[in-house]
UniProtKB/TrEMBL annotation:
Pfam families: DEAD
UniProt xrefs under PROSITE patterns: HELICASE_ATP_BIND_1
Listed name of the protein: DEAD/DEAH box helicase
SMART domains, A to Z: DEXDc
Amino acid sequence: MKFPKPVLLALKDKDIYIPTAIQMQGIPVALSGRDMIGIASTGSGKTITFALPMIMFCLEQEYVLPFERGEGPYALIIVPSRELARQIYDVVMDIFQWLEKDPKMPKLRAGLCIGGIPIREQAQVFKDGVHVCVATPGRLSDMLTKKIFNLEASLNLN
């Protein structure tokens, strides 16, 4: 699969020219919609390995039927700490910003669902609709219980 030019520019901006071992093995598996377990050392590119296929899926869905206010997320990433959630969110948002620079690309949105940030701020982002949610378990549970958003649109891979 070829990636859109803005995605390639985002990778180039991060000095990523050649995929790492985990990326060479994991990206094709994830693009095919299959489950996988990837084990690799810190800094080996695991986030890009799952983020690129996730972003491609969101782009594909946005072309088929554009998002409306309050919809989403298609993708849910649950992590154990706020710090890791922020790191992953930043990687996703960086690629989204590169996509936004191309007028031919649809706008994708992400939401950060973590403690330590006022829930009202996060709620507004989700009310506008997000394609990707990066969350910690506690805040995710809180926001789902308060019906700030739901997971009906999320892809469930069996």
